[in-house]
Amino acid sequence: MTEHFPALLVILPLLAAVLIPFSPAAVKRSAWHISFASAAASLALAARLAWEAFALGKVSYWFGGWAPPWGIEYSIDPLGALLLLLTAFVTCAALSYSRAAAPAELAAERLPYFYSCMLLFTSGLTGIIITGDIFNLYVFIEIASLAGYALIAAGRRREALVASYNYLILGTIAATFILLGIGYLYMAAGTLNMADLRERLPQVYHTKTVLTGFAFLVVGLSIKTALFPLHIWLPDAYTHAPSPVSALLAATGTKVGIYAMIRVIFTVFKPEFNPSTVPMTVILAGLACAGIIYGALVALAQTNIKRLLAYSSVSQIGYIILGAAISNQTAMTGSLLHIINHALMKASLFMCAGIILMSTGAEKTGDLKGLGRRMPLTMAAFTAAACSLAGLPLTAGFISKWHLALGAVEAGLWLVVPVILAGSLLTAVYFWKIIEPAYFSPAGERRPVRPEAPAGMLAPAVLLAALGVALGLAAHFPALGAGRAAALLLGNP
Amino acid sequence: MTEIITFKPLFAVLASLAAGIMVSLSGGRPALREAWTFAGAAVKFAVIASMLPAVMTGAQLLTPGLTLFPGMELRFRVDALGLIFAGMASFLWILTSVYSVGYVRKLGEEKQTRFFACFALTLSAAAGLAFAANLFTAFIFYELITLATWPLVAHKETKEALSGGRIYLVYLLGTSVTFMLAAILISYNAAGTLDFRPGGIFGAMGPGHKVLLGAAFALFIAGTAKAAIMPFHSWLPAAMVAPTPVSALLHAVAVVKAGVFLILKVVLHVFGTDLLSELGFGPPLAWIAAFTILAASVMALRQDNLKLRLAYSTVSQLSYVVLGAALLSHSSIKGAIFHMAAHAFAKITLFFSAGAIYALERKTKVSELAGIGRRMPLTMTAFSICALSMIGTPPLAGFISKWYIGLGAVEAGQPVFLAVIGASALLNAAYFLPIIYQAFWGGGETAAVESPEKGPLAMLLVIPLLLTAGITLGLFFFPGLLLELAELAAKG
Amino acid sequence: MIELIAGKYNYWIYICLMMIGFYAIIAKGNLIKKIIGINIFQSAVFLFYISISKVRGGTAPILWENAVLYDNPLPHVLILTAIVVSVSTTALALALVIRIRKEFGAMEEDRIAKLRSDGP
């Protein structure tokens, strides 16, 4: 049974997602329970698979028993295991949060379909992480994206529809580019299995076919990842989506996109491809640096809380890609650590924003005066998560920024170091705009409808923020795991 | 050098942390809350004092490291320099707590729980910095000091207080993240370790890497804005919006001393005086320090607000320590370390006095102080003693430190700095002596007014400042212990 | 030169189609026209895949006793999947446009931008 776990990981949520809309009303009412059960099962499966992956180095599953490169292979290595755990964990947290948050923002009759889409999204993400076949990657990217478009469109305001539509257009262009890139690679190498491509492509690295394919793949994935300047879909999407969706998308959607890009650049194409043919390091690093500064500066100017968090995401994604672009052991470790850190913290921040919205109706940064006293737990979680993103000592963010900056120093990229450090400062500044009035101004006119949010909403937000601090103090395990994953990616022993 | 493995440094850090937590939990009962503060302060000082004998013999006290992630560990190591800093801070915390109780109750300040809790946390962070065994630990606690003191700076929550708090954060966090972190990373990459080692960590790297090491050194100095070297000094006057006990302990003793302490550590245990002399980095730093000394004194002359005048005086006096470090000679470093302590006792008295004047007579300006010496004789006597110590006249502690720094300047072959010290003494006299004169002999006849220095709350304000003034005086006559520790620290 | 154009006419066709579709997506303000553009764009990619599956001298990839050489069936399969994806995307996009039309009363990008309550 256990050897089928990789397949179950994808199929369980998929089954649940399909069953919910077609079941009778009584079952539909327990849609949340079904979803949460599925997510919990996924988390258990993911934990088991992650343990196996770290112990054995790789877990491999052949669909239908067909051996690769003819069949589709699912392959989990330490990097995939990390992402799996992260995604499963955040999904559980987001679903737990949805129990109270979703009914507040959606009509009751829509809820079953909402949860169904959440499960579809999860299934898609999981598929992206564990698949070893590049076309399968495209399919799962589309599954996740479509579910994502639907989820975003469920937002309260009509602007959510426009945000979703714009995201759909851009996302479909991106996916089609990815499809095109896959086509070129297939043309050149004749296989779709990632490991097989890795063996076969080096002979044709210098052909225009492969270069074009690589370019299309990277651009398509960059749109999905919201790398500057292809990020324009992100602010609207995150702002207008319902809060659980913002939390889930911000935490997992773009991270899995980055994962896919890292897979393409480092596993399908060997690291040697980059400096010898395309100066990927320079281009990606440059765009990433621009993204860090741009995202932070625009975030400074925002008055809407969720929009500020969205631009903050653009900035933080820049950090992650910067680490991958520098591509030495330390920087890559920092990049992977920052994936974990940002996912957990951004989820917590969006959850807190949703709690604040639900309790006080406040959407703007100026409406948060005195909230530190009235909603102490929420603001404490928000502050802790913000500190971790800013990279203050004793938080997980400090560890990841340390690795990133050290990696830049080791690589001799002196211009990048001030960007990393300045970005940290800017992050602290734009979060400051929210935190200072909350704690140091007398209460404004907005009085909380409820004094503090229901435990089901608060617990995940607080837990995730607390993890940010805990992982800063007990950084050993994530650092080792990330280090090992990074070493595997870069081909280091 | 014998190594002793002990958890005492950790206990010292944790004592005030525990006190801080208990304080924040005892908000509703002021007596219990204050009791926690004193208990924590007493335990902390006792633990630190108990490490003195071992350090005097030259042994090293180490705690086992806590590996945060591969390559970096949090570790404590107690040496003479750290012991001076931690001992001084924790001792003065006891006195400041007494003073604070009187101050906040006299003025009916709000949010007293947050006040006392943040004090305790700051002292934890200060001890952590004092006992840091490597740059990584030092950086973390250095940042924690900033974060723990910010609520104290912005305590009054008025627009000015919040604005002052913002300036405080911008300067301190901005410089430390941008410059110091970069310096630490460069050093780590170059040296392969971040441990503090007598003689420095760069080993044989020396003159070949002048540009790299120069950049690192410059970044370290720029990143230590807590030492208030110009042009990164503006946070200190801005932080005077804080209540006076905060200004007293933190900005005369803990925060600013953290800055110069770190500079001393960088000079002695990261680069090493030999390497710095070889590379010729001493004179530029010495000149920057000299400029700060003189410029800040001039700016102090122009301040009418008493606390602001004292703030600029602090900026000036801190650069004495930096100057001593920059001269790179044994005596000057000894003098710098001695001054770290001497200035602490003197400055805290001055701030205590300013606070007492505000609390008891509601006066904040120098121009309002005519005749106050007759109404508040105890306070103003203490003030005068410590002002003279600032100026550097015997028989006060300030004289000893200036003597050694001056000796060091001659030893280093740079006697021009003697002139700087002398000029600064004159400037100090120019802005302190008029205050003393006006206080005692100014203001004409005053009606026989009841001295405000009566009553239990007033005593809580006055006794600590008399004690610290007494110590300033006493350090001249009994400098032995401090000098010995400074000697040990300066040797390596 | 002739070889470049005539020999690879399939690629030229798909490039032109792709650019037409791409142009429609970007330049047209009407939401439905954008969707049409996406469809053209995606169809061009499908054509590309199919065209690379053709083997010279091969016959359709259906089992047949007289066959000597088959075309590559794999891209056909891939495109079947991709068509399904494209159809789903179009359906979702059209559903969104219907809702947008209901909520905003407009289907032109610039008019919607003016009607939005969170600024242009």
Topology overview:
The complex is a heterotrimer of chains A (493), B (492) and C (120).
Chain A (H helix, E strand, L loop, with lengths): L4 H15 L5 H5 L1 H26 L2 E4 L10 E4 L1 H28 L5 H20 L3 H20 L5 H31 L4 H7 L7 H18 L7 H8 L2 H26 L4 H5 L2 H21 L4 H22 L2 H32 L10 H4 L1 H15 L5 H15 L5 H25 L14 H19 L2 H15 L3
Antiparallel strand pairs in A: 1-2
Chain B lengths: L2 E3 L2 H18 L4 H21 L1 H5 L3 E3 L3 E4 L2 E3 L2 E2 L1 H28 L4 H19 L4 H19 L5 H33 L18 H14 L11 H4 L5 H28 L1 H7 L2 H20 L4 H21 L3 H32 L10 H4 L1 H15 L5 H15 L4 H26 L14 H22 L2 H12 L1
Parallel strand pairs in B: 1-2
Antiparallel strand pairs in B: 2-5, 3-4
Chain C lengths: L1 H5 L2 H19 L3 H23 L19 H32 L4 H7 L5
Question: N-to-C SSE series of chain A?
Answer: HHHEEHHHHHHHHHHHHHHHHHH
* Radius of gyration of chain A using CA atoms only: 21 Å
Radius of gyration of chain B: 21 Å
- β-strand percent of chain B reads under 5%
Order of helices and strands of chain B: EHHHEEEEHHHHHHHHHHHHHHHHH
Number of strands of chain B: 5
Short characterization:
The complex is a heterotrimer of chains A (493), B (492) and C (120). Chain B has 492 residues and is mainly α.
Describe this structure in words.
The complex is a heterotrimer of chains A (493), B (492) and C (120). Chain A contains 21 helices and two strands. Chain A has helices at residues 5-19, 25-29, 31-56, 78-105, 111-130, 134-153, 159-189, 194-200, 208-225, 233-240, 243-268, 273-277, 280-300, 305-326, 329-360, 371-374, 376-390, 396-410, 416-440, 455-473, 476-490; strands spanning 59-62, 73-76. Helix content of chain B is 74%, strand content 3%. In chain B, the strands form two sheets. Chain B has a three-stranded mixed β-sheet with strand order 1-2-5. Chain B has a two-stranded antiparallel sheet with strand order 3-4. In chain B, helix 2 (30-50) packs parallel to helix 5, helix 5 (112-130) runs antiparallel to helix 6 (135-153) and helix 7 (159-191) runs antiparallel to helix 8. The mean pLDDT of chain B is 84. Chain C has one domain (2-115): Helix Hairpins (Orthogonal Bundle). The chains are: A mainly alpha (493), B mainly alpha (492), C mainly alpha (120). Chains in contact: A-B, A-C. Chain A binds chain C through residues 135, 138-139, 142, 146, 149-150, 153, 157-159, 161-162, 164-165, 168-169, 172-173, 175-176, 179-180, 183, 186-187, 192, 239, 304, and chain C through 22, 25, 31, 34, 38, 41-42, 45, 48-49, 52, 74-75, 78, 81-82, 85, 88-89, 92-93, 96-97, 99-100, 103-104, 112, 116-118.
